[in-house]
Amino acid sequence: MRILILFLAMLILHLLTPFWWWVFVLPLAYGFLAAKKGWRAFAAGMSSAGLLWFAMSVIALLTRSETILAKVNVMVKLPGESYLIILAATIIAMLCGGFAALTGFLLRAATRSVERRA
Q1: With pLDDT > 70 as the criterion, what percentage of the chain qualifies?
Q2: Alpha-carbon distance 49 to 76, whole Å?
Q3: Do 7 and 53 meet the contact criterion of CB atoms below 8 Å apart?
Q4: Residue 75 clears pLDDT 70, i.e. is over it
Q5: Which of 2, 56, 57 is nearest to 29 (CA)?
Q6: DSSP 17
Q7: What is the pTM of this model?
Q8: Alpha helices of 63-82 — where are they, by DSSP H?
Q9: Are 52 and 93 in contact (CB under 8 A)?
Q10: pLDDT at 102
Q11: 13: helix, strand or coil
Q12: Is the distance from CB of 49 to CB of 27 less than 8 angstroms?
């Protein structure tokens, strides 16, 4: 459920704004505000961000943006078709979303430990 909520929020913000960095901000906020465990925060951020970038890449491929993907593929020197750039983008988004959510969780844990000491 958390993954779906994060995914839908990132999708809406991705479609309404020209910014790509929602893949960092929303998992960070989720990790800080709602995550109960670090590995669950990482898994939710990783799954939702990876699913978003995979879906957007596939939509770009299916809507005749294949030439853009091919040019990016040549630019980063990946062999083969545009599918490798989709895979690379998905893996990068998964890592970024997962580590953003884990960072939010760890920031909350650090601020709570500081509050307990004071």
Answers
A1: 97
A2: 22
A3: no
A4: yes
A5: 2
A6: S
A7: 0.85
A8: 66-75
A9: yes
A10: 96
A11: helix
A12: yes
